[in-house]
Here is the input.
Amino acid sequence: MKLESILQNDQGRQTVDASDLVFGREVNSALVHQVVTAYLANQRAQSYRFSDTSARSSLKKSRSDVSGGGRKPRPQKGSGRARVGSIRSPIFVGGGMTFGSSKPNYHQKVNKKMYRSAICSILSGLREHSRLFIGQVDVADYKTKNMVNWFAQHNLAQNALIIADDFHESLFLSARNLPNVTVITPDELNPVLLLKHQVVVIHPEALKTIEEIFA
Here is the structure.
């Protein structure tokens, strides 16, 4: 698989070898939609990051959430009193609340294999539409105009996701004031950022890391 590089030669832009498993897959739109929807749902403020229902703290506990009450407090018959199966029933003090409201849980589980496949599908789609480039983004200092000049020099839109191999302070600071330019490392890669930007620029060293993670 060949990816277009920012670097120029006599005939034009060069190409870089890349993994077919990451950048040469068939685009699965249904899977991408499912993963993006789940990712956005898991970012909501009231979304739990775990699936263990016993660990969730409800705003108002129902009888199943209140601790205790596992033993039947008295025999079913013979006492002349009402039948009762648990002291945590809503009619007892300390019991659960009937139809108690609880915090909504928007968590959606996504398997690792599905998530990796969705990322590879998005990267393959970006490659097909000539929106994915390989190149080293070098700026002289922290000034924003240097980043603007770099985009103009390489004829790229200033709506870009730059995936660097590591945190570079000059690169981060020079792009910070550009509203549509985001600088991340491979471990911060997610489907929303890939779809949000018009152009994706990957550093050569970051390309190797991405292939190791998602191949």
